[in-house]
Specification:
Hypothetical Protein Tm841, Chain: A,domain 3; homodimer; alpha/beta
């Protein structure tokens, strides 16, 4: 196991301390661990909170900031944060406008966010939970009943974050988040496995000419073991899997994420982005916005996920709205 | 060789086409290949141009935009762009205020940028060349007379870009760029090698418990083959190598880059950032600004480089000035 770490059991804490040192816009709380936008509550604005296992950086802490998350709650590597941890984070940022939890669909995350939501409600804080389940690879999976949540989480967090910043009430922000999830589909491929630090062994074995088609972001099995082929062919298979779910029509507009899984160099992601552009052009789809980079990772796994979100102009306006986080940072061009 | 590519000889072109599809703020020109900020010249502003071999993404194309580069010129993987290619890019963005070339210190890059500078001057365009040679690992190296240029390139491009945007004349922008380089030092470590697509074999062999201390961004040998150790010990060795050059004093302020070499997951870079914060605190140095991520890469090589730049308040103001590129994007906080 070759990693830039100290004690394998201290990786998450060390990384959080590192984040605290370099991102003055974040408040990093330890024991319990959570990261907030700042120490002030944003009164009158719905508070957005997400979280999940660590090892997927920059998700979720890198998306804390104006126009996106108010708090992120990191668990141990590939393990849900505790209900108590989520509850503490939520209490820190909750406002009279209520709390929205954005939760990737894994059994542990659902359970712990649900328990935290019950605790908040019992103390009179209006709380909604939105589940992200965009990964079309498999219906049920290791750690999951129903589809897994992956790349669309970033789109949900951005668009719901802008809706909350615009002052929409909780029910409407939650509706918008669910609309984004319902219009999103993702699929991933892995070329190599990751190694969880405290385990020290690859999550799965894979041959030198093989890929896992439909891999999960913890290395969970996908649809099939397949041969490594040229990027154009791999992309076509991925796009077809996505589109058999989304059923995009000529004239549709999409936001796309070409996402590296942690160990993938950027030049390869741009090669995949070129295949994406060919696909959208061939199908008469407008590639309205795209992110190319490593946003939802699986430690050092190589490979990528592709996420497409069908958008209407209102969702696109929320996407374009001002955001100020360590990772996404822009103001609308006038 | 496991890569998300098509034809191994077409990787750079495919990636440039992908960039064109997803970054509307960039104009991607093909044959000869170069990327410009937009199709308009920024009259009255010194034009900043950088470039070098591909395989180091997002360097340099990801730093094209307002407040940073006017053009970037990518060569083949790990190979200098041609003098003609550089000259064409420069002609596209040159203004009456002149042209500044920012060149990493590799023999091929120096030669070709120098030839392009001569061509520009012969057609009456005032041109300065600034060499970046921040890598303290070795004095001479494969492809290099003198020290190699690595992570400080980003700092030079950002600060000189802001100085140019502020309307400073060519000689002053060049002086500022040289001041940044003179106050910067970097060193890298590799845990694994990269593979150049059209070669198909690792650049170097390295054992399962070994690192290359002082590696170059093309996998060039550094100071020594050493044992993999905890991040804190590796960081201390790197910081000492840097500091024996910079001789930082209590009270100094630095900009730091904790840079992944392409295959390194972000969580490990934050672990290294935590070691950086301990180092600066122990030495009474102010960590004024820091970037943590993969900015100057070597394809899928794992490991990192650390760059420290000693800054004064004027340089820090240029660092904080508005920048709008695919990678760095911020406005000063008031």
């Amino acid at each position: 196991m070759k990693k830039l770490i100290n004690d394998p059991t201290a990786v998450v804490g060390d990384a959080l301390d590192g984040m605290a040192a370099v991102h003055p816009s974040l408040s990093v709380h330890r024991n319990p661990d959570y990261v907030t936008r700042d120490d002030a509550r944003n009164t009158g604005k719905v508070a957005l909170i997400s979280g999940g296992g660590s090892g997927h950086e920059p998700l979720h802490c890198g998306f804390v900031g104006k126009g996106m998350l108010d708090a992120a709650v990191p668990g141990a590597i590939f393990a849900s944060p505790s209900a108590n941890q989520i509850h503490e984070a939520a209490k820190h940022v909750a406002t009279d406008a209520g709390v929205l939890f954005i939760v990737k669909n894994y059994t542990g995350d659902r359970l712990n966010f649900q328990m935290a939501a019950d605790l908040l409600r019992s103390s009179g804080i209006d709380t909604e939970v939105v589940i992200v389940d965009d990964d079309v690879a498999v219906e049920d999976s290791t750690h999951t009943a129903g589809r897994r949540g992956t790349g669309a989480t970033v789109v949900v967090e951005k668009i719901a974050g802008a809706a909350a910043e615009a002052g929409l009430p909780l029910a409407e922000v939650a509706d918008i988040a669910r609309r984004v999830n319902d219009n999103s589909a993702s699929i991933g491929i892995a070329l190599t496995s990751s190694i969880v630090p405290h385990i020290g062994q690859p999550n799965f074995d894979i041959g030198p000419d093989e890929i896992e088609f439909g891999v999960g972001i913890h290395g969970e099995p996908g649809r099939r073991r397949a041969a490594l082929r040229p990027a154009a062919e791999l992309f076509t298979d991925m796009a077809n899997a996505i589109n058999s779910e989304l059923e995009l029509q000529t004239g549709d507009e999409v936001i796309a994420i070409v996402n590296g899984l942690g160990g993938t160099p950027l030049i390869e992601l741009y090669v995949m982005a070129n295949e994406l552009a060919k696909f959208t052009e061939q199908h008469g789809i407008t590639l309205s916005r795209a992110l190319v980079g490593s946003y939802v990772t699986a430690l050092e796994m190589t490979g990528c996920t592709i996420t497409l979100t069908r958008v209407t102009s209102d969702l696109l306006d929320y996407w374009d709205a001002t955001v100020d986080t360590p990772v996404l940072n822009w103001t609308p061009t006038s």
